[in-house]
Design brief:
45% of the residues lie in helices and 21% in strands. The strands form 2 sheets. The chain has a 3-stranded antiparallel beta sheet with strand order 1-2-3, with no helix packed on it. β1 and β2 form a beta hairpin. The longest helix has 16 residues. The N and C termini lie far apart (58 Å).
Length: 153
């Protein structure tokens, strides 16, 4: 690693830590020539996740978009933001571990709904109603009935 102060190519690692999201490693380095200290970040290079939308268009997976949807579903619900961040990380990790770089928006929604159902049922219903584009009370009632039946099983 090149020292940003004297441009020497030799340095030693003083400290290494994972970042909060466990996606990279933070390294504190010290130049062997000038003793200057600097920080580097090391991360795994991955191919981007491509989302195939319902209209067959393609776009990059956007964590912010998913967190926005979750925040909307959990509006005025007692769900901590950290929990929603973990849902997004878990969904993204499952998609990355599927060994394909193209996923459908349906897959993302299904994974998200499965996780949200265990966190907050009201937020789950809100998310499902938007995703499935409920247009009647009967559709809400059918989804609630499915939840009730699963609870009894």
């Amino acid at each position: 690693m090149v020292c940003p102060y004297c441009h020497n190519k030799d340095s030693k690692v003083v400290d290494s830590r994972s970042t909060a999201d466990d996606r990279s490693i933070r390294r504190r380095r010290e130049c062997l020539k000038c003793s200057g200290r600097f920080t580097t970040y090391e991360s795994i290079e991955t191919t981007p996740l491509i989302v195939i939308k319902k209209d067959k268009s393609h776009q990059r997976f956007d964590r912010e978009k998913l967190i926005t949807r979750l925040l909307r579903a959990c509006g005025k619900r007692p769900v901590p933001f950290e929990v929603l961040q973990n849902v997004v990380i878990e969904v993204e990790n499952e998609l990355l571990n599927s060994f394909t770089n193209e996923v459908s928006s349906t897959q993302i929604a299904e994974l998200t709904m499965k996780k949200l159902k265990d966190i907050d049922v009201v937020a789950y219903i809100r998310f499902v109603s938007v995703y499935h584009e409920f247009s009647s009370v009967e559709e809400f009632m059918n989804e609630l009935q499915k939840l009730e039946n699963n609870k009894k099983s």
